[in-house]
Amino acid sequence: MATVEADSVDPRVLRTRRDVVDAATALFLAEGWTAVTHAEVARRAGYAKATVYAHWPTRLDLVRASVGQICGAAEHPPPTGDLRADLVRELVDFAHDLSRGHLDRVIGGVLERAGTDPAVDELRQQLCDQGTGPMEAILRSHLPPEAVEPSVALLAGGVLVRVAIQALPATTAFIEDLVDRVLASSGHDGAP
Questions:
Q1: Under CATH, which number does the domain 6-70 receive?
Q2: What whole-number distance in Å separates Cα of residue 109 and Cα of residue 22?
Q3: pTM for the model
């Protein structure tokens, strides 16, 4: 769907798009990928199925709009310059999002379908870029370039495995220990 300037679009169309994407996103977060159907989104949004199909011809279009909204709404704490503290805050926020049960559902749905459609692979990349981008920026300002990518993988992966795979809480103590271990392996003590 092409992006159109907000001032040139009828306000009713903008409202319809907002309502439908809000309904699709709420459904996706609450029940997962398979629950996002044109019929159910239309019912929840209060519009005809034909209206939903006109703007989002496929289920993947609805999911893509939902992922865009989820990524767009993600808030990352602004970096303070204290490497360790900034990483801990990012990861505590990530663990919180995972443990609330919606982010792991989004990630799981995308991973389950990865490799089946280039659009799904784009969604996976979007989740990765927007989810780990701020942490990567924090690390880039403190670590040598070759240490950044492995550090991001270890940090994000550690929290993801802890919460989504092991079903254990990623407490602040766990995250601090993880950050300290990753920083030590990269030759950085975490001091500002």
A1: 1.10.357.10
A2: 18
A3: 0.78
